[in-house]
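Query structure, 117 tokens:
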């Protein structure tokens, strides 16, 4: 899986290029994200194209968040479709992750948090 990444005001934005994140491709997603996690402290995952996630994808998101938090960083999720958001709410993951409408909104939240420190 080839992730498209770019930087916006010091925050790394990762665009996920698939419609489904599940057991069939989550290992490939984890591998692709490992390089991003090594180089970035604050990351926004843009889920605009993703229509379905399963529990293995949720586990991957949690491991990314833990890894970033341990290094003093954070992870935010952007442009989540309603079907994916419903699953996050069902398993209460919306309380763990900050979910925003756009990558730009997530970057603004990172910048606000940085100015308060």
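Result returned for the query:
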């Amino acid at each position: 899986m080839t992730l498209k990444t770019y930087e916006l005001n010091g925050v790394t934005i990762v665009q996920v290029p698939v419609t489904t994140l599940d057991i069939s491709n989550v290992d490939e997603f984890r591998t692709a994200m490992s390089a991003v996690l090594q180089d970035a402290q604050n990351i926004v995952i843009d889920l605009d194209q993703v229509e379905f996630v399963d529990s293995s994808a949720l586990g991957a998101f949690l491991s990314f968040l833990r890894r970033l938090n341990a290094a003093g960083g954070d992870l935010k999720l952007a442009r989540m479709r309603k079907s994916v958001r419903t699953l996050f709410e069902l398993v209460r993951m919306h309380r763990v992750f900050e979910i925003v409408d756009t990558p730009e909104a997530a970057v603004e939240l990172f910048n606000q948090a940085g100015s308060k420190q």
